[in-house]
Amino acid sequence: MPRMERSGEEERSSAKKAKIESATEPAASEQVTVTLDSKLLDCSVCLHTMAPPLFQCINGHMTSLGCCEAVQHDCSVCGEPAEIRCRAVENILGGMTAQCSFREHGCTAIILFTEKLSHESSCLHSPCYCPIAGCRPYARKPLRDHLIMDHPGMLHSGVMAGNLCAMRIGDRESARFVSVLDGKGAVFLLVVDRTVPLGYTLSVIHLANEPAGQDDFKCKILLYTRKGTLCLSGETQSVGCLRSPYEPAASLFVPEAMWSPDQSPVYIELK
Question: Distances from the Cα of 233 to the Cαs of 55, 85, 220, in angstroms?
Fold first, then answer.
């Protein structure tokens, strides 16, 4: 079969067409690694990481949409209208990734920067916190298990439901298990925080299963001091696992000038 020879004109035309097609093809995206202070990407209103859509004022102060609407599109920093859509920063944020903050605890996830807070709020590797002062964060497990395993010397007292029961607290005691003897097996933790200036704080936690149960327990703490009676009454805080440093829902502050643990017992009522 005879071979068809291409004319010079045809070859030049084909080469020109190939060159045009090559020029119109999108270039492969190039990734770069940048280190910056994450606070630069915080919303000027809520101070949390911004997420698109974003708006800014003429002075460049940026705000997430939700916060922008909350302040009626007025910049919280300078008062100028914050109505300029900040699409360039939206594109940058949309392409940024970050490591989970709990990588030292075993999380290897690489997530979108704008989804970092959402991921970390439910990350299985996030540490748990102990209400006992000085105890370091630990790998996720129920608080009750942590107390049993990592604080083996803790004392345990039993009380009758609805009765005011006396407990004498040791000089160095920072917490104690308290069980309600009503057949239901509810266990509580009396926390004695000695790190507060000029005194102590007493609080009670219900050690619930994980996730925390919805049981409604009421607690009363009563102290007879040198200068009178101190009392705290209210509902207990049910905790399966503390995902942030312990902040008691309610606590009784006792000035050290009025009471010390070796002087008189703590009276507790649980029901």
Answer: 47, 51, 4
